[in-house]
Design brief:
Radius of gyration: 26 Å
Helix content: over 70%
Distance between the termini: 34 Å
Oligomer: single chain
Structural class: mainly alpha
Shape: rod-shaped
Largest sheet: none
Number of helices: 6
C-alpha cells in the first residue's frame, strides 16, 4: 500500500461527509426561504388590512390636523395607538421578514456553493 493512501482516503471520506451536511443545511435553508417568501406577502396584506380596519389612520389624521389637542393629550393618543396595533400580525410579518432576510443573506454569502450545487445536480 502506498504511503499516505490511508490519510487521503480518510480526508476524502471527511470531505464527503462535510458536503452531505452542507447539502442538508442548504436544502433546509432553501425550504425556509421559500416558506418565508410565501408568508411574507400574505402576512403583509393581512397586516395592512388589520391596520386599516383598526382605525390607526384616524388617530394619525386627528393628531396631524389638530396639533394643539394632540400636544395636550399625546399620552392618551399613544395609548390608543398601542391598543389599536395588531400585535400578532405584526409579529408574524416581522418574523417572516427576518427569516427571509436571514436565509437570503446566507444564500448570497454562500453563492458559489449554491451555484455549484444547483448546476452539478
Amino acid at each position: 500500500m502506498p504511503q499516505g493512501l490511508f490519510d487521503k482516503i480518510i480526508k476524502a471520506i471527511n470531505l464527503e461527509e462535510k458536503k452531505q451536511r452542507a447539502k442538508k443545511i442548504l436544502r433546509l435553508l432553501f425550504i425556509l426561504l421559500i416558506l418565508s417568501l410565501i408568508t411574507l406577502p400574505i402576512s403583509a396584506v393581512i397586516l395592512l388590512k388589520m391596520i386599516i380596519g383598526s382605525g390607526l389612520a384616524y388617530f394619525f389624521y386627528s393628531a396631524i390636523t389638530d396639533l394643539e389637542f394632540f400636544t395636550q393629550y399625546w399620552q392618551l393618543f399613544f395609548l390608543a395607538i398601542l391598543e389599536s396595533i395588531p400585535i400578532t400580525n405584526l409579529i408574524v410579518f416581522i418574523a417572516s421578514l427576518i427569516l427571509a432576510t436571514f436565509t437570503l443573506r446566507l444564500f448570497l454569502y454562500r453563492k458559489k456553493f449554491l451555484l455549484t450545487y444547483l448546476f452539478n445536480h
